[in-house]
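TL;DR need structure tokens for one chain.
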Amino acid sequence: MAEMLTRSLGRLLQEFFCQRLIHQQRVSPQTVSSYRDTFRLLLRFTEQSLGKRVMKLDLTDLDANLVLRFLDYLEIERNNTIRSRNVRLAAIRSFLHYAGLQEPNALSTIQRVLAIPMKRFEHPTINYLSLEEVESIIEAPNPNTWSGRRDRTLLAVIYNTGARVSEIVTAKRIDVENTQCTALRLHGKGRKERVVPLWKRTSRTLRQWLPQIDQQPHSPLFPNRFGKPMTRSGVEKRLQAAVIKACERCPSLKGKKVSPHIIRHTTAMHLLQANVDLSVIALWLGHENVNTTHAYMQANLYIAS
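>> reply
TL;DR here they are.
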């Protein structure tokens, strides 16, 4: 009966990824990867739960009861955080919104899944670094080596722009605005672009760095030793190496967890403390909604009190 009501689940998923996400919405590769991972987990769980091979599954097999059990499985057996659980549910919802338009006969099943709420959770405290700490990290790499100069420039740009790691590793030489390096174009989530101004110190560091890399416009701004773009893990490793070195000069860093995202938090908090308007900070960080940036205002008020 299900086969008469709906086209194959595999066909719907293929159309959702190829037509809806990639062709129509033009979402980022990171979003595609996240959705792909969600459905890999969901299909494997469904196959085991129902005792049906993936090729035999139908849209109506993804009912509310199964999805709720899948979400519990993520939290209990895979130890996913509530935030990760909600990300997976958002991917499933997105697919089912699309599937409902394609297969109205399955709407009763789909509507019950769409009624599953996101789980509320306590937002973690925003951690950030002092100016002395972040400057110690930026100046830690050895300026007498090519990799040290790259790392100094990399860390200075991350702090200046508040860029996500995914934005930094995809930055190219052509993304630097003019020969004076006064701004950097970043390619953010959902293929959205923004141009972030560079402070004089960052501009000077970047101008000194550019002659040391490939002169082709589309070459990576921060290459690895093979001339290829750095990876996310590569950036994180270079940051950790700088933190370890910086602890010698700045003991307050000892025991602190420092990640690229902590540097991003630091940028936001320092801009806020410099009385930069919240709407400007939202644009600076690439936040789609200023309410996301409002968390920094709340954190700053809490510290001030």
